[in-house]
Design goal:
about 450 residues; mainly beta; Rossmann fold; Neuraminidase; 2 domains; 6-stranded mixed beta sheet; 5-stranded mixed beta sheet
């Protein structure tokens, strides 16, 4: 079956599920990993040679500005939570080196203590952040962040305070962290967000959500339904494709709706929504292949491309449709129907980062059992290799601010296998969870309920 022969190590777990539940038209096939026969019998490119010519950018380091965060003697949950969340976000964002608490200047760190910027400057920091959280009532808290630039002395360059629902303490702390990042870099961070992915094997595959810092992983699909291809859609609803008892994959929501009526008959193997949620894309099994369809909703889907084996649909920040589909020798990444990855190098799972330096296309490429992440422009161009010799790395997803990419890795060195985030240039990879999976998505949270208090 053509479906099986596209299942290399890059997508082994997902493809095992797809093959098990594929319609009868996929019943016959060739051994796993076998590329399609080339027209004319010419020799396909050597994947090892193709991968070897991609410039490696990861591994190099450059000095980052040091940031100090004032320690706190407060034991209130609101203060401890705010400080731990913001500190981790500033560390994960990859824009700073956050000074350890034990290197802070000596002092009495009370909520009303002034910031001794001069003492901090002697520790080599360029900025100092003070955070204060306190409970206001049974259901409200106040969160405040102040930032000082050493070169400007004791006057805060950033001072924002919010009243927030106590139940939303962590998410509102992420929002404040994003503002602090913006005050120090000129662009807000992307941690007021969440990720979704599928994890498990065989008939035990479920959809999960997790915070952008790796906190609060939760199963969102029932255990008796094999779940794949999650995506956040209109109204921040979480959609996924699910199958029970060997049935076709149909579209459900995490809130229990479904199966959703589709205008195209067939098993659903991939979902994506445009940034404004005005368009949905679905990879659907039709006949002996899989094709991608788009439309304003599931009931109005129309063919978007004739390219076969179209998996992992995605939309670029400018609204172009992308997916991984059938090339002459291997699976390639297509944007607006045009390939942007080399033929002969198995490519999968495209995502697009709206980075301050321009839109970056990031996808996985595989040779044998290993996969690495590479980056190019939105419509192709020179490839840069982001990972190398660190296990298999795949299913990338870009942060809402475009400066980070999350991905799953099987690496055994360093922090070990799990879910990682790193800069788009491949630097500062950090594990945020020991969970692994596939079909990763990263989207902003809906608007918060915090109310700013003017100082």
């Amino acid at each position: 079956m053509r479906l099986v022969r596209w299942c290399t190590a890059l997508v082994a777990s997902a493809c095992a599920v797809l093959a098990a539940a594929a319609p009868s038209s996929f019943a016959q096939g060739t051994p796993q990993g076998t590329p399609p026969a080339s027209a004319g019998g010419d020799k396909p490119p050597n994947p090892d040679e193709l991968l070897g010519h991609i410039t490696v950018v990861a591994g190099a380091t450059r000095p980052l500005p040091k940031v100090g965060i004032l320690p706190s003697l407060a034991s209130d949950m609101e203060d401890v939570t705010l400080r731990s969340v913001v500190r981790r976000d500033l560390d994960l964002c990859g824009e700073f080196e956050v000074l350890d608490d034990d290197k802070a200047p000596d002092g009495l760190y009370l909520s009303d203590s002034p910031v001794d910027v001069k003492a901090w400057s002697q520790k080599g920091v360029e900025a100092v952040v003070k955070l204060t959280g306190k409970k206001l009532s049974a259901d409200k808290a106040e969160l405040r962040a102040q930032a000082y630039l050493v070169r400007y002395g004791d006057k805060a360059v950033f001072d924002r305070r919010f009243q927030v629902p106590l139940a939303d303490l962590r998410s509102e702390s992420h929002r404040l962290a994003d503002l602090v990042i913006g005050a120090l870099t000129g662009q807000n961070g992307g941690f007021a967000s969440h990720m979704t992915f599928a994890s498990g094997s065989g008939s035990l595959r479920r959809v999960f959500t997790i915070d952008a810092d790796g906190h609060d992983a939760k199963a969102m699909s029932p255990p008796d339904r094999v779940a794949i291809a999650p995506a956040f859609g209109k109204g921040d609803a979480l959609f996924y494709a699910g199958s029970g008892r060997g049935e076709e994959y149909r579209v459900y929501t995490a809130s229990g709706q479904g199966p959703m009526p589709l205008s195209v008959k067939g098993s659903v193997y991939g979902l994506a929504f445009s940034k404004d949620r005005a368009q949905v894309a679905a990879s659907i099994g039709v006949g002996s292949t899989i094709q991608v369809f788009t439309g304003p909703d599931f009931g109005s889907l129309k063919p978007a491309s004739p390219i076969g084996m179209a998996l992992h649909p995605a939309f670029t920040p400018s609204g172009k449709l992308a997916f991984a589909g059938e090339g002459k020798y291997s699976q390639r990444i297509f944007v607006d129907g045009k390939p942007i990855s080399p033929d002969g190098l198995f490519a999968s799972a495209p995502t697009f980062c709206n980075h301050p330096d321009g839109i970056k296309a990031i996808f996985a490429v595989g040779v044998g059992k290993q996969t690495d992440l590479v980056a190019s422009g939105e419509t192709g161009g020179g490839l840069a290799r982001l990972t190398q010799s660190q296990g298999s790395n795949g299913y990338p997803a870009c942060s809402p601010d475009g400066r980070l990419v999350a991905f799953f890795s099987t690496r055994k060195s360093g922090e070990g296998p799990g879910l990682y985030v790193m800069r788009v240039d491949g630097l500062r990879p950090k594990r945020i969870s020991n969970l692994t999976g596939d079909s990763l998505r990263w989207d902003p949270l809906p608007p918060g309920k915090g109310v700013e208090v003017k100082n």
